[in-house]
Amino acid sequence: MKNQIRITTLSVVVFFLIQAHGTCQGMPVYDNTNFISLSKSLIESAKQTSQLLKSVEFLKQQKENIEKVSNVIKQLKAVRELTRNNQKLFNIVQGDLREILNSPYIKTDEVHRVSESFNSIIESSIEGLEFMDLILSSDNLKMTDAERAEFLKTKELESKEMVIEIETKIRRYREIIAFRKMQSKINNREINY
Predict the structure, then answer these.
(1) Of 78, 127, 143, 173, which cross-links 147 as Cys (Cβ 3.0–4.6 Å)?
(2) Is it the case that residue 78 has pLDDT exceeding 70?
(3) Rounded Cα–Cα distance for residues 131 and 73 (Å)
């Protein structure tokens, strides 16, 4: 019987506990380990964000450095092309102009005009080289690398146009010489009747 009373009492207590749990609100219980792990993960996330921001800043700086190097390379290429074009210009004038001026089919009054037309192109080329040297060596002209590269590209195109102009004039004068040579042969041939 004692056992039966115990079982009944225990059953009633369990019944009331189950009933009480369903109806009472009670006090919330917080687990401190969850707060600690949450704060640790927030701190770690902040560290990673800080590292990410430093990486972004570093990449921006490297991009700027690459752009600067790219602009310098563009400037060097433009200077190299300018130098080649001017060297070609001088070689053409030095060799071909001498050949044209020494031709017996160029009249004496034409020599001065031919020389002047070539001299004006050469002087323009030399002025362009001097100005290019000033831009590249002087810090007084406040230009960015991009502006300097654009200027050099423009000068490179101008020098190509000068080379084309000189080549056109040389070709034209050679055609004139060839025509006069042919005309001279026709006029001075012997007639065999």
Answers:
(1) 143
(2) yes
(3) 19
